[in-house]
Amino acid sequence: MTTKQIVLASRPQGMPAVTDFRFENIDLPGLQEGRILLHGLFYSVDPYMRGRMNDVKSYSPPFQLDKPIQGSVVAKVLDSKSADFKQGDIVTGFLPWQEQIISDGKGLQKIDAAIAPLSYYLGILGMTGLAAYFGLMDIGKPKPNEVVVVSGAAGAVGIVAGQIAKLQGCRVIGIAGSDEKTQLLKEVGFDEVINYKTIPDIKKAIADMCPGGVDVYFDNVGGEISDAVVANINFHARIILCGQISLYNSTVIPMGPRLQPMLLTRSALMQGFIVGNYQSRFPEGIQHLTQWVKEKKLVFNETIVHGFDQLPAAFIGLFRGGNTGKMIVEA
Amino acid sequence: MTTKQIVLASRPQGMPAVTDFRFENIDLPGLQEGRILLHGLFYSVDPYMRGRMNDVKSYSPPFQLDKPIQGSVVAKVLDSKSADFKQGDIVTGFLPWQEQIISDGKGLQKIDAAIAPLSYYLGILGMTGLAAYFGLMDIGKPKPNEVVVVSGAAGAVGIVAGQIAKLQGCRVIGIAGSDEKTQLLKEVGFDEVINYKTIPDIKKAIADMCPGGVDVYFDNVGGEISDAVVANINFHARIILCGQISLYNSTVIPMGPRLQPMLLTRSALMQGFIVGNYQSRFPEGIQHLTQWVKEKKLVFNETIVHGFDQLPAAFIGLFRGGNTGKMIVEA
Q1: ipTM of the assembly?
Q2: Predicted local confidence at residue B59, as pLDDT
């Protein structure tokens, strides 16, 4: 039995290209005791994966050349020689970009299609939702009536973070890169929106919208957009570093205005995190997110691309603003 | 009765000059009921005062032109019409740069010369020691065997922060700008020292000294020294922004490498603070500091300049590395 996988063919220099990936057909061995055979249904593409394509020390080890890319996947159990799984079970976990996968089941969780669409387990009920929840709540600590700014607000994490901030009673301003995206943000309840591609002076726009200053900044993008927000932070502001998508493809260390004087004079906090830091508290996060989804207090958007072969292109699309909400590939 | 005061004559552009200050003789009114007449003994000059000379929003309002500079002062009560103070009492508090001062006593604290030299109340038993204590302990949260780097380590706050880190069981590396200063740091117990003025590659020096990364960075200086430290931070590092003396005299927003990608990939925290944030916990800090001073576990160094008229020059000297430990003017 053979299957198709996608390996890292070369480490991208700057923006990744489809030629940095290679499709390979591999043989799958017969199913051993304790193993399960999975068929991939939904594959998550996420900005953080760009970092793993570089050969540098980071929170997770780099992808290996000529080995399959790995990410969050929703898959169906086709065959099982494990006592923990039966044929037809749906699972999610960290798996290779491969059409059929043999797994020992470690780290996989069974999921329930009755609660939410299966793809949601890669998004709002997965790492995406948890990143929004823990970043905002644990680092941002938003209080009612505080002003929260979200960059990359129409992205997978941003749109959830903004809505959770609204649920905390905050005034929420979203920054995104098209009128279609800012329109969506208004529809899900953001108080104010900024299209950074058409506004002449984003720093001034934020100053005008936030005369009392920005209390919490949920940053997904970095770069000049962040410079504009940081220039408007309030005393005791909290800046959550969730992503820096504008910088992921930089081949040199980018320069910008030094932040420390602003953080110092405002007694402000800036903190990076990865969702894995909160692993012991995932049940708390999932419980809140599931409840909000059931109550329709959280609206979730997906951009679904069809076809396993589209995985590299969908991933690259993340850096071109090609997605609204969570980008997912349905096999 | 007349006395001499020092007013802000003009807002400095870049490095302050003695011509930004002006000496004035003023008349003191007769002592009213509830007031005390003070004679200044010791005057504190501190880097943070540079920020108050600019007309910008910060944690404390700017100094006013043609009004006396204000700072921490130790003074003796010459005459009292207040029930709370008697002639001969020694007090400390926030007072104008003036030889004789009339005060209503609000915010002044009586101090005890039997516990420590009077000047210590402007340093290790004053805002300086409290800044080192709360910055390190509350933001840095050092754990035994962690690696702590202190910049401006021979400065008033730095030398205390480094010693407190040693008392927490950390390995402590101090960065300073002369061999005399690094020698002093060794004498007070720093494990390793770097003279940034003579070392060819500070980033590499830190990498060599800290193969496991830097866990806590107590930053008093900012700029390129901080770039070198931040390039070596560990996962879950804490960066305490206590001062940015290398940038205080900048007339434009200085540029530097963007920090967010590093903070993000290391799940690191950077936080600015002023000692006033911890006002409700001052007794806790003073208690620890006093105890350590009594037990001679904390060594404190001062650079004492003599003569009230030397206040402007002593203040300017802070930015030229003219002090080791706390810079104080004795009237």
Answers
A1: 0.89
A2: 67
